[in-house]
Amino acid sequence: MSMKDTITVITQTLKARLEQLENKRDILKAPELKQLYNAMKQLEPDERPAYGKAINELRVELEQLVVNHEDQLSTALIEPIDVTAPFDCNVPVEKRPRLLTVEHGSRHPLTTEREIVASIFNRMGYIVHDSRELDDDYHMFGALNFPEGHPARDDYDTFMTDEGLIAPAHTSTMQNRILRWYKPPISAVVIGRCFRNEDLDPRHEHTLNQVEGVYVDKKVNAGHLLATLQSFLEAYYKTEIEFRTQPAYFPFTEPSFEFALSCPFCHKKGCVICGQEGWIELIGCGMIHPNVLQEGGIDPREYTGFAWGFGLDRLVMMKHAIEDVRYFQSGKLAFLKQFK
Ligand code: DAH
């Protein structure tokens, strides 16, 4: 059978199965899809683009069918409400008309996962703090070694109030406070909402959740940083992972790295979650810049430290194979109800 025929047959099989599935989203994890992606390796290089395009189209089509189904569900759940209708509190609950929801609510996935992340870091000896949702230029930039007018400030499209206060674009806005509140040895994690004036798409949202880590002591080195991140990710995804680093630039760390982990789902084979890459870039990190330590009241000749920041949303999207970050704040019942 030609590749094209195989795709056609699998497309029909998957569509038929979709009809039967209770949780339509499971179709996106069908083994046939994975097999199709894996089969790419056996093709001649010149055949791959057309083949890759065909299976991507199939995946997009399936996603669209799932989303259509979810949309229909959430519309069906909303019944018109007549706010003027008398509500008789003497009618037993089971006899009252059902209005908006048919069941009680569920926890938001980010709330659940935030607690899991916090408890892993707790067990690793980190104290956990909330971030702030309004801050000033000094904490967002100045204390983090962004000089006035430095182009690196442009990487953060911040929302500002008329008074010049900032809705922080990263949890690093708490670093200076962490350094000042605690004396070394310091091990602290900050989790909270951050805000960016982004163009919105499936990977970008105006409100995101970050997890920031700060560790300071004598003789701390980058090996400690990398091992810490690896241990955390292995505990979170409950599987072994490998990592690789690339040089990066942040004004508040030197050296700075981009930390990528091997995909915890396919272990580098390539799958839908890692976009067939086998690796996922997740974390900005590095050794805390001496100027930042100094500004936090810590002598950089005596102490060194590391810091990192990653998006909680991204971590959770991978864990639950959520393809669009905007679902988190969409208030779509069909989405939220999966996380009972
Ligand atoms: N604040 C950075 C961002 O949002 C992420 C980050 C990078 C945090 C390096 C850190 C760090 O603490 O050391 O883009």
Quaternary state of this entry equals single chain
Ligands and ions found: 3,4-dihydroxyphenylalanine
* SSE sequence, one letter per element: HHHHEHEEHEEHEEEHEHH
Return residue spans where pLDDT drops below 50 for at least 5 consecutive residues: none
- Global geometry: globular
Structure description:
This protein is of the alpha+beta class and 340 residues long. The protein has 2 domains: 3-101, no CATH class; 109-339, BirA Bifunctional Protein, domain 2 (2-Layer Sandwich). The chain is built from 10 helices and 9 strands. It has helices at 3-20, 31-39, 48-77, 109-123, 137-140, 175-181, 222-237, 290-295, 312-319, 333-336; strands spanning 127-130, 159-160, 166-167, 186-195, 207-217, 243-248, 253-262, 279-288, 304-311. The strands form 2 sheets. Strands 1-4-5-9-8-7-6 form a 7-stranded mixed β-sheet, sandwiched between helices. Strands 2-3 form a two-stranded antiparallel ribbon. A hairpin with a 4-residue loop joins strand 6 (243-248) and strand 7. The longest helix has 30 residues, at 48-77. It starts with a helix and ends with a helix. It binds 3,4-dihydroxyphenylalanine (DAH). 3,4-dihydroxyphenylalanine is lined by residues 170, 172, 212, 250, 252-253, 284-286, 307-309.
